[in-house]
Design a protein that fits this description.
homodimer, alpha/beta, 4-stranded antiparallel sheet, 13 strands, 39% helix, 13% strand
């Protein structure tokens, strides 16, 4: 049975998150932006927050550091409680995701046996993660072992278990796959890692603010992630890292910057890191980025991950249903798990001509991400996307795909 | 002969950089801010630039990355030509100073003999540098060897030469000492390092935008530095790093993030870094910080380092003359080199009660930095400080110091 535009309108009328759209700065008129997991939209409040920051910079000056110094941990705590299922003091916002993965991964490797220098990840993991992990392994005389992953269904825990031989010193995977959106089973994989005595770092870049993450409940010890996707922290916003409280004091990250130092402004002769999550920070915090992250996280937290995830799943179901009905006959194939509970908040469609179709869809006002070799990725950010937009986007994609390429 | 306030007024009237003050957002009325080498003042243009950034974020969205991607190298090139004496393609703006020191230092160590795992620095170097260098040495089974430094006159090249034994794999020093302001002799020390076949990383945090730096002419191969001091890039602004062109392809930094990858968006299976300065970058660039750095660097570049340095030296001469006349009888001792050509743009005064006097001076509208154990540091940012402000600041310091502590 055809899903009509009126059906989508009805879903929007019943949407408990409809109020959120007005809290974000509108994009270009007519554009349906399904690329929000590349760059989330700016909260309206960002403008005032940046003006306040500029005021503090000129008027309160270095005294404002009394507040700015707290941002990595205060924004981290907000993220922890609302989106990560972690406790206060377990998350900080700092550096980039790649630098954080390096720091946490190196700390985990250094805490283990030097002979265990193989790092395991999956062959469909995000490129920067794969490269950083390869660098960590190479610097210890080891190498990366790739778990072969189904490019649609994601990581199979059994294959991970097979890869965790005694030479493995670190495992790292993404919770939500950046192409397919497949959700990894955190509890199962953490248990496998624990049995093999291998530290596990989760990348939550496509999870945070999109799907429910329960770091404590799933038995996760280490994680990193990005804030400029669903969390709407702005271009190049600082990333986060998580280390379970009980693991912090025994781990030491390799970049011994002064922000991790006990009694920092004593400027003492020897490096003596604090015992808490602060020991995973390094240099002066990027204040401009941090205040924007705080605006994004606060706004999304005011909706709650429960409502965000529910709507995200509903948007995904609508997109998949319409793709089945309209796009499958035109050569598209669903390249995400079919079950909504197995997906994050994006849907991938495979088509041999995906790159060209992505470009043509953009010309028709539908912005998605092309991800090679043949994927069109539709990011369905629940805070900013309506059901009618999904309907219209799929409708335009159908029109573009049905008409000959110019 | 007493220097009168009228003398200072005359210097301001003749100041070729007087126009610059109006290009920065005014601070609190009546405050004389001599702590600008902790945090430079915001250019007026920052407000409009941040508004433009917010507009791009909402309207141009991910298409704006076409421009944002260029910022690390375009701002780096501007810094290189105007302030660092380096060539295009030798400087990038990214990460924090500590992370950059780690990356460049690790790359230099890794390019050398693994047995040379001692890192040399001086015992008065900036704490974060000392800690990062200690971490680099420790991770390679080595240690740090500290050159004993005169806390006023700075690093003696002969002592550096003595420290460069065959076990040394890396040398790193600050060009301008963060406490005394003493200038290190870059040419002499580079030559010593070259003779010992030891790579040398300069920290230019207190130099960039303050004193003339000629990386090429002094034979420097590697450098890092901060942009939130004299360059006015804003709180926690991203830092820079320099690698001489001829050294780039042979060095590989340890954090293999995707922004250093050749054909980045092909997202290929193996890490294959670009051959140029981009191989020293890691994660997604911090765009908000970068655009503010660009505003600061552009504004200072419009004055030129020649004029900035001339005025900075003149401000220092005035401060030292007044300190000799007014403060020496009150127990202050100059803790910077007496010759202006041997100092950066800050002057340190030692006093047994410096911490308390620093606090009391602040209450009288003179903001300096206390630096332990007994130093009052006066940052004389030539773009924003007037001669009358220096006169008034020393006058107030005299009054505070002459009156009993409450």
């Amino acid at each position: 049975m055809a899903i009509t535009r009126a059906d989508a309108e009805a879903l929007d009328e019943a949407d408990p998150l409809a109020w959120m759209r007005a809290r974000f700065t509108p994009g270009p008129p007519g554009l349906i932006a399904l690329d929000g997991n590349s760059l989330g939209r700016p909260p309206v409040s960002v403008a005032a927050r940046l003006a306040a920051l500029a005021h503090d910079w000129s008027q309160r000056r270095i005294d404002a550091w009394d507040d700015w110094m707290q941002l990595p941990s205060s924004v981290g705590d907000l993220l922890a409680s609302e989106f990560l299922g972690a406790r206060p003091g377990e998350v900080v916002v700092c550096d980039s995701t790649s630098v954080n993965l390096y720091k946490v991964g190196a700390a985990a490797l250094d805490a283990g046996d030097a002979g265990r220098n193989v790092v395991v990840t999956d062959d469909d993991n995000f490129p920067s993660d794969r490269y950083v992990l390869a660098g960590l392994a190479a610097s210890r005389g080891g190498s990366v072992r790739y778990v072969t992953t189904d490019p649609v269904e994601g990581v199979d825990p059994e294959r991970v278990a097979s890869a965790l031989q005694p030479d493995v010193g670190l495992l790292s995977l993404s919770h939500v796959a950046y192409r397919s959106g497949a959700l990894a089973d955190m509890t199962a994989i953490n248990e496998i890692a624990r049995r093999a005595d291998v530290p596990m770092v989760w990348d939550l870049s496509h999870s945070a603010g999109a799907v429910r993450v329960d770091l404590e409940g799933t038995g996760s010890d280490l994680a990193v992630g990005c804030t400029y996707k669903y969390l709407c922290g702005g271009p190049g916003a600082p990333a986060f890292l998580y280390v379970r409280a009980s693991r912090q004091a025994a781990m030491c990250q390799p970049i011994w910057g002064w922000f991790s130092q006990r009694d920092q402004f004593a400027m003492g002769p020897e490096y003596d890191p604090v015992d808490d999550i602060g020991r995973f920070t390094t240099g002066t915090p990027p204040v401009l980025g941090l205040v924007c992250v705080e605006e994004g996280v606060r706004l999304l937290a005011s909706a709650g991950i429960g409502a965000l995830r529910s709507k995200g799943m509903a948007l995904g179901v609508l997109a998949v249903d319409l793709a089945d009905e309209w796009l499958a006959p035109l050569g598209f194939r669903l390249a995400s798990p079919r079950r909504a509970t197995r997906r994050g908040n994006h849907v991938a469609l495979a088509h041999p001509d995906a790159e060209n179709l992505c470009r043509r869809a953009a010309a028709e006002g539908v912005a998605g991400d092309f991800r090679g070799p043949d994927r069109l990725r539709l990011g369905l950010a629940p805070a900013t996307i309506s059901f009618v937009e999904v309907w219209d986007a799929l409708d335009r994609l159908r029109a573009v795909s049905a008409s000959p390429s110019s």
